[in-house]
Write a sequence for this structure.
């Protein structure tokens, strides 16, 4: 499923983000950039040790921020590591932090002149963010950014399972 936004395209697919052929993939990282489980672990395993080597040099990334490393052995040239919030009931600034994680990732891509990037569902796995609300924040933030900034031509949301894909599809249909 896709939607055009002022010359750019937002696409939803179910799949494996480590297989993306794109300028950058976004990693749902932890603040210490130490690798981990879920999408973070998968990206580090597929990308090889060069990614972790650069993560160690960077050292830290606060929640809601984003940093960039090589793509290592991935098809993507870069990995944009962003830290989404752990969901703690919704009244501790989680929505603003999740929005910031998406926006900061897009800003890092724009700074490098990248034309395409692929996102996972940030914070919607082990960090417990409610998928419906998280998908609406993700799509609203990306679409607003694409309207305000030219350069990025394609944003893909690569969603690991059918349930998450369906939640994003419903959220994207709501924006039509």
């Amino acid at each position: 499923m896709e939607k055009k936004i002022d010359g750019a395209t937002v696409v939803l697919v179910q799949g494996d983000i480590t297989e993306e052929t794109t300028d950058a993939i976004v990693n749902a990282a932890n603040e210490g950039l130490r690798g981990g489980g879920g999408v973070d672990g998968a990206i580090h395993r597929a990308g090889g040790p060069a990614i972790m080597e650069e993560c160690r040099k960077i050292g830290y990334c606060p929640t809601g921020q984003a940093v960039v490393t090589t793509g290592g052995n991935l098809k993507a040239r870069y990995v944009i590591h962003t830290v989404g919030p752990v969901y703690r009931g919704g009244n501790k600034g989680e929505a603003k932090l999740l929005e910031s994680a998406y926006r900061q990732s897009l800003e890092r891509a724009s700074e490098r002149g990248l034309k395409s990037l692929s996102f996972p569902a940030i914070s919607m796995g082990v960090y417990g963010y409610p998928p419906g609300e998280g998908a609406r924040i993700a799509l609203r933030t990306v679409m607003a950014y694409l309207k305000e900034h030219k350069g990025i031509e394609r944003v893909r949301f690569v969603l690991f399972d059918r349930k998450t894909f369906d939640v994003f599809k419903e959220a994207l249909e709501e924006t039509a």
